[in-house]
Protein 1
Amino acid sequence: MIAYRAGTPVLVSQFLADARRLARSFPPCTHVLNACSDRYHFTVGLAAALISGRASLLPSSQAPQVMQQLGEFAPDAICLCDEADGSSALPRVLDPREALGAGEEDAAAVTAAHEVPQIDAAQLAAYVFTSGSTGTPLSHRKSFGPLIACVREGARRLGLAGAARWAMLATVPPQHMYGFESSVLLALACGHALCAERPFYPADIAAALERLPRPRALVTTPVHLRALLGSGVELPAVDLVLCSTAPLAQQLAAEAERRFDARLLEIYGSTETGQIAIRRPTHTAEWRLWSGVSLELEAAGSRARGGHIEQPTLLPDVLEMTGPESFLLHGRLSDLVNIAGKRSSLAYLNYQLNSIPGVEDGAFFHAAESSASHTGVARVAACVVAPALDAARLLEALRERIDAVFLPRPLLFVARLPRNDTGKLPLAALQSLAAQMKSAAPA
Amino acid sequence: MSDHQVASLRHAAAAADADALSTEVARLIVQALNLEISPAQIAPDQPLYGEGLGLDSIDILEIALVVSKTYGVQLRADSGENTRIFGSLRQLVEYIIANRTK
C-alpha cells in the first residue's frame, strides 16, 4: 500500500502501473515541472520522471513569475498540473489524471507492473529552488541516493523504520522540501502510505485523520498546528506529530502532545540541506544531528556538511554546538524572512519592490509584533515612495513577483524613507514611522 | 396578510439580518488581519482570496479561527476547493448563516 485517496487504499502495484503509464505519455523532454496539488498525482509524476530518467522541478510557489522562471530554467520541461489555474504561464502542460488507471487493470498487467524499478543512487532526481537575492531562483540539485539516505536516517530517528506501516497526512505541499521529504519520500523509501489530500481547515484535517488507519502521523507546521489547537475542533488521537518550517513555541508543542495524545517531534532543515536534525521540544531544547552531518560556525551563519548533504551549505541561523552531534538554535539572522515555511530575504524582497516601474524607493522590514494574529504568523511590512502608484496597482505588481505571504502588511506610502546620513535604514526608524502612520490613520 | 406578503416580509427580514451580519464579518476580517482599510471598503462581491482583497491562505486560516470562535461555525472544504467559501464576503456570510450554532 502506498497511498490513501479519500480514505481508499492504493496498492503499490496500482501506483507502479500509473507511474509507468504516465512515463509513457511524456512527450520528448528531460525535465518535469511537477505542480500537482494532489499528493498522489505528485508522487506518480515523481516516480514516472524517475523511471524514465527525467529530473523533476519542484516549484516553491505557483506565482506566475516563479512558474515562468522555472520554464526559462528548463525550456524543454513539461508541466504536470492537476488544477486549471496553476500552469497558465507555461506552454506545455500535461494533466496526470489522463494517465491514471481506473483500477480495472487485468491482474496480469498489474502483476507484471509489480516489479519495483531500481533507481541509480547517482541519478539526478529533482531540482529544488530558493530565491536568490538578484531575483533569479537558485537551483539545488538533489540526487536520488542522498534524498533517500536522508529520509531513512530520519525514519530511524522518528521511530518510523520498524515493521509497522504508517499512514501519513500532511498539511504542507509536496513541492516544499519538508513536505517532499516527510510525506512523499518517507512513504516511498520506508513503505508507509501517504494521504493524497491536503486538508486545509481544522475540521477537514481532523476528519481526514479520523479516516486513516493507525498508526497514523500528522506532518504539519506551527501555523497549522496553532489553527488546529485553537479551533475548538475535537482532535482524533494520532501516533506521531511532525512539525517543521518555523520555530515552534514550547507551550504549543506541549498542548499538541496532550490533545493528540502523541509524541511531537520537530525537524530542522533547509531546502539546500534537507532535514538534518530533530528534537522533542517537550523534553529538550537540544537538537540532535543526523549522523555524518556536521555544523561549523562561521561569521555569516553555520556551515552544514557531510552525511547526505551534497553541497556544503551556509545556513543563516545562529547556532551553538553543545556536543559533536547536538546544538541549540538561537534564531535566524535578521535579513531572513520565513513565513509559513516560505523563505525569502529582505534583500530579495527589496530588489523586487524597487524593480517595479513607478517605485522610487522602498524597503521591507519586520513590523513590530502583532498581537492580533491567531495563527502566530509575523508578517513583513514595507515603506514605499511611489507617488504615481496606488496601493492596488503596487500590490498587483508585487503579487506577480513574490509569493503572496510576503506581500507587505501594512504597505505604507511615504514622501521619503527615514534614511540616516549613510543612506541606511534603521529598523527602529521604520517601525516608529509605521506606528506614527497607524495612529494617525482615520479609524 | 396574504401568504405572499408574509413570505416577502420574511425575505426582507432575512436580507436585513444578512446585511447586519455582513457588516459585522467585514469588521472582524479587518480587525483580525490588521488590514489598512475600513470594513465598508470590502465590497460584498469582491473576491477575498488572491486578486481582489488579496488574502492568502494564512489569512483564510486566521479568519476561519475567528469565525469558529464567534459563530460556532467550523469551516469545511471537504474535497472541494479550500477558498470557495472566501469567493466573496457575501458567500462567507451565506456560509455562516447556513452553519452557525451561536
Protein 2
Amino acid sequence: MKKQTAIAAIGFAILAIAGLMVAGFPKRAMATDKPEKYLHVRVNESEDDEKVSVNVPLSLAEKILPAIHHGELHDGKVKIGQHDMGAADVKQILSAVASAPDGEFVTIQKKDEEVRVAKSKGNLIVHVVDTSKGEGKEKGVKGGEKVEVTVPLSVVNALISADQQELNIGAALRALSDAGDSLLVTVHDATNDVRVWVDSKSSTD
Amino acid sequence: MILLAKVGLIAVGTAVAGGALISSEGFVHVKVHEKFPGGHNISIVVPATLATTSMHFVPKRHLREACDNMKEWGPTVTAAIDQLEKMDDFTLVEVTGKDQHVKVSKEHGSIVVDVNDPENTVYVSTPLRAIESTLKEIEVSASEPVRDAGRDFSDSKAKRDTKDSKDSNAEPD
C-alpha cells in the first residue's frame, strides 16, 4: 500500500513539475504593485488615412536605457553641449526655469508666428503657433501648425540631475513614471495630428 | 493489474514531462498567406526549444560572427526581454493604413508580429524565453574554442607549438 502511495506521489510530482514548466513560473507575481505607466505616441495622418500608435511601457524604457551605449547616450545619460550650445547653458536655463515662480518667461508675437514659454502649476509649457506654413493665415490650426509641449517640472529637475555635461534621461523617465497621467506634446497641422502622453492604459484607445 | 497501473502512470508521467520539456520555452508560430492566385499558404508551429538546440549544430565561426554583430545591442535586447517577461500583454506598435495593418505586440509571453497588406498576411509569434535562450546559446557557443571533426584547433596548435619548442630546444644536443 505504501509503495502504491509513493508511486502515485511520484506520478503527481512529475505531472505538477510538467505543468509548471508548461505554464512558466509566475514571474509576474514578483513584479511590484505599482501600476505600469505607458508613454503613448499617436500620429493621425489624414492625407493617407494612416494611423500610427506606439505604446512604450516606461519601466521597459527605464530598464533598456542603461544598457544602451551608442553615440552620445551612455548609462541612461546623454552628453550635451558639444555643438551650438554649451551644456552648462542648457542646464542653467532649465535649472533657472525650475526654480522660478509661475509666470510667462518668453513671448514672441510675429505676423505669422507666436511663441510662449511659461511655467504654470508645476509644469513647463511651450506653446508655438506657426501660420506661415499653410495657405490660410488665420491663427489657430487650419493651414498652420500648432505645437503644445507640457513637461512636469519634476521631469525637468530629474533631467538636469546628472553631471555638468550630461542630461539624465533615465532619471527623467523615472520622474515621468512617478508623475500623474499627463499630456506631454500635441502637434496639429492641416494633415497631421500628433499626441504624446503618459497614462496607465496599455493601448491608445 | 497494479503493475500495469504503475507502468501506465510512469509512462504517462514521462510522456507529459518529456512533452513539457520540449514545449517549456513555448512554440514559434509562423503563418504566411500570399493573397494572389496560386499563392502559398504556410503555417509552421515549432517547439522553441529546437531553435536553442539547433545552435549546437551551427558552425562556431558563424556564431562568433553573430556574437560580434550583437555585441553592442545584445545587453539591450537581454534587458528588454527580462522586463517584457514581467509585464502584462500590450501592443507596442500599431500602424493602420487604407489597406494595410501592422501590429507588434507582446502576447502571452511571446512577441507577435502581425502584418496584413494587399499582397500578404504574415504572422510570427516568438516566445521571449526562446529568444533569451537562443541569445545566451549564441554567446556561450561563440566563446567556446573552434572545433572541427572532433579536434580542437586551438588545443592542437598549442600542443604543436609546445612540441616545436621542445624540438628546437633538443636540437643542440
